[in-house]
Amino acid sequence: MPKKKSQEDLIDRILSRTLGEGTLRTAAGMTAWSILALTVGGIVFIGIPNLESKRSRDQSNREITMDVANAPDWFTSAPELVEEMEARITEIAGSDPFDRTGLMKAHRILAEGGWFDRLDRLERDGDGNLIVFGTLATPSAVIRWKDEDHLVDDKGRLLDWRFEMGTASPSLPLITGTSTPPPTHADGSLDHGGLWANSEDLDAGLRLAGLVKTRAWASEIMGIDVGEYMTNQDLWLHCNSGPRILWGHAPGTRSATEITSEEKLRLIDSVHANYGPFRQLDSIVIDVRHDIATARRVAVGEEMLSE
Asked: Over its length of 307 residues, how does the chain's per-residue pLDDT go in tens digits?
């Protein structure tokens, strides 16, 4: 079987038949090879980028999504938060799979929002959708400041989420009455991820919130008032309707006449079990600071005792 001629041999044979040997043939050969090189170069440096650009434009016209890998239950059960975060991050990142700048900006916004204890990375999958890898912070309570309710995590750090006053989930304890403003940057903007609970009243309120949310009657508590804490060390529990409960000192501390926090919780358990939901009580105050819970009624001024 005859040996197959190479492409170079084929070009040489064509030039030899048409131009013969000599300078003209050599010059023509160099020209032919130059044209071939320019053609290949044009495909590599113009054609392929144009194809990539077309693909990029096609991708940028479609909607993308954002998922948090291994997201905790509280996050997946908060659709309004998921939708807000997804809309913000996907808008910043864009849908162009080759836009690294947008991806870096979105990563920075996520990091500055305070939502992650640890933010490992933000990447795109094969379809251009965003996937966030990291450990989410755990929302713990909302703190009321100037007619807005601000979300904080279990360490008292400010998260990038605000509610209209009174619209937060009942599962999040509300802390009112603080004189401590939220953390801010030098330019006055809110410092999301910054520690808000760096004052005695908020620290006390968050500790009490951590105890209350474990009780069967927690959903009946509207908020924790820390307004008197800096003057007389007293914390108050406000019910959705019915009485206010005078708790006293912060969990872990007590005056000489106060019972322990666990004993106070048991007193409230007893009142709730014996007298029904708090909304059925027309009391002004239930005092659980001492061995017996006392309640002053509005109508007749009588006291209700519960051991």
From this structure: 555 555 556 556 655 655 555 555 555 556 655 665 556 555 555 555 555 555 555 555 568 899 999 999 888 888 888 888 899 999 999 888 888 899 999 999 999 888 999 999 999 988 889 999 999 999 889 999 988 999 999 888 999 888 889 888 878 889 999 989 999 999 999 999 999 977 899 999 999 998 998 899 998 998 999 999 999 999 999 988 878 999 999 998 888 889 999 999 999 999 899 887 888 876 678 999 998 878 776 444 445 544 4
Q: Coil, helix or strand for 58? A: helix
- The whole-angstrom separation of Cα 204 and Cα 226 is 8
The third-level CATH classification (topology) of the domain covering 139-306 is Rossmann fold (3.40.50)
Which amino acid belongs to residue 153?
D
Q: Are 86 and 109 in contact (CB under 8 A)?
A: no
The rounded distance, in Å, linking the Cα atoms of 242 and 82 is 35
Domain spans in the chain, listed from the N-terminal domain onward: 66-136, 139-306
d(CA 209, CA 7): 82
Whole-prediction pTM: 0.70
Dihedral sign (CA 279, 149, 203, 119):
positive
Beta strands in 79-125 (DSSP E): 116-124
